[in-house]
Amino acid sequence: MSLSVSHLNGDATFLLTFSPKEDARNSSGYATTANRFSILLDPWLSGDSTIYHRKFALARHTVPCSIDHLSEIPPPNVVLISQEKSDHCHEETLRQLEPSLRHTTILAQPAAAKKIRGWKYFNPSKVLALPIYSERRPESVLRFCLPCQTPGGIPGEVTIAFINAKLDMTGLHNAIALTYRPPSVVPSFEPTTTFYNHDFRLSELDLPLQSSPFLEQLPPTPPESPRSTTECLPTPSPRPGSFFPATATNSISSTVTSISTYSPSRPKTMSVLYSPHGIAYSNILPYARNHLVPNAALPLTLLLHAFDRVQNVWYLGGNISSGMHGGLELAQSLLARYWISAHDEDKESSGFSIKNCVTRKHTLAEVKTLVKDGRKGSRAPIDVMDLDCGAETVIEVPDTQIRVRERTVPQTPWPLA
Q1: How much of the chain exceeds pLDDT 90, in percent?
Q2: How far apart are CA 109 and CA 91, in angstroms?
């Protein structure tokens, strides 16, 4: 299976495309719709981003976007909006989607969902607020069913969880966590899966949130056979006076085992964490312990997190972006295999709120050095990347290997059906 990551602007707009096998490509270079599941993150293509008022905060792109209109990419299954600020929830760009959202569901942070519904432009039944994740509420993880590819196989599943930072008055520090398990391509011979002979007749571009009794009994991906050495999920140790705790050294009872075998009837699970402003690992830990570990979704496949640290005065939010040190904590704690820079564009900004804002830029080389120093004694390397606007990386997971290949997506329109 594979995960295609396309960077559509110089900031935080990504197109993620999950495929059960190496995806087919059309003449424009994008994945075809067959057997894929695509997620568009925080689309902002053109126009200004204004917070409250132009005199308070105004931002413009300085890097031309790789596309001019959302019609140039295949219709995504899901559009994810991480917050209501206009650099993440951009009205002019979102209105480029068809109002009926026939093939797409918008899942947004609660305040952003309310904002989008207030435009009265989209079909309100296709604009949903992301529930805040709680380990006590299994329904706070949203699930999409991926129909079986063969009779007797196991359906696949995409899960989406919204994790909010505690005591964060700005509402900036959150994360959206994704997992993807493809449908099995061969029949399963396990007695517990004979139930899945039901004929799912679902449109690939109109996948419902999991609600049927068939999916409620879907068994999680079992933990794969461990090697002789296990890796432990660390527990954070708070640093006094710091919003983000220090890198953890302790561990909890749940262990994360490495991949050593492959079951054709139980495909592996890929996992992604998108946190453009950063979030403390202590907020991620309950999700990792109660969802990622039981579903064998660790090591984390991909972390999308900023390199640059942004700090404002306390009465205007204080820490705006935790930068590379916050990203390193997440990457190390979740055993991330890949880390791609997000939300680091040098935008043209003006307004009262940014006069005292200080940005500490970090280059790719600096982050790689920090990661190299921070992983001494660890056997799992972290591959750090900074995708140019218009570039694409494909993470492939054949059997027990993970490999990456990069390409630049041709900037030609996507043909509409």
Answers
A1: 53
A2: 15
Q: Which residue has the higher pLDDT, 57 or 102?
A: 102
Q: What is the mean pLDDT of residues 384-405?
A: 77
pLDDT of residue 22: 54
Instruction: Yes or no: say if 23 and 2 are a contact pair by the CB < 8 Å rule.
Output: yes
Q: What is the distance between the alpha carbons of residues 394 and 207, in angstroms, rounded to a whole number?
A: 23
Rounded to an integer, what distance in angstroms lies between the CA atom of residue 69 and that of residue 73? Answer: 8
CB within 8 A of 336, min separation 6: which ones? 273, 299, 300, 301, 302, 303, 330, 382
Alpha-helical segments (H) within 91-158: 91-94, 110-118
Q: Across the strands, what pairs with 164?
A: 174
DSSP 287-355: HIIIIITTTT--S-SEEEE-SSEEE--GGGTSEEEEHHHHHHHHHHHTT-SEEEE-S----EEESGGGT
Q: Which one-letter DSSP state was computed for residue 63?
A: S
Q: What is the Cα 49 distance to its own chain's centre?
A: 22
Asked if the model's pLDDT at residue 83 lies above 80, the reply is yes
Residue 272: how many CB atoms within 10 A of its CB? 27
Residue 240: partners with Cβ closer than 8 Å, 6 or more residues away: none
What is the enclosing helix (H) or strand (E) of 129? strand 127-129
pLDDT greater than 60 at residue 238: no
Average pLDDT on 186-203 reads 37
Please state, in angstroms and rounded to a whole number, the distance separating the CA atoms of residues 127 and 111: 12
pLDDT, average across residues 356-382? 82
- Burial class from Cβ neighbours inside 10 Å (0-12, 13-18, 19+) for residue 196 reads buried
* 0.90 exceeded by pTM: no
- Identify the CA nearest to 143 among candidates 78, 211, 87: 211
The alpha carbon dihedral of 62, 63, 69, 74 has a sign of negative
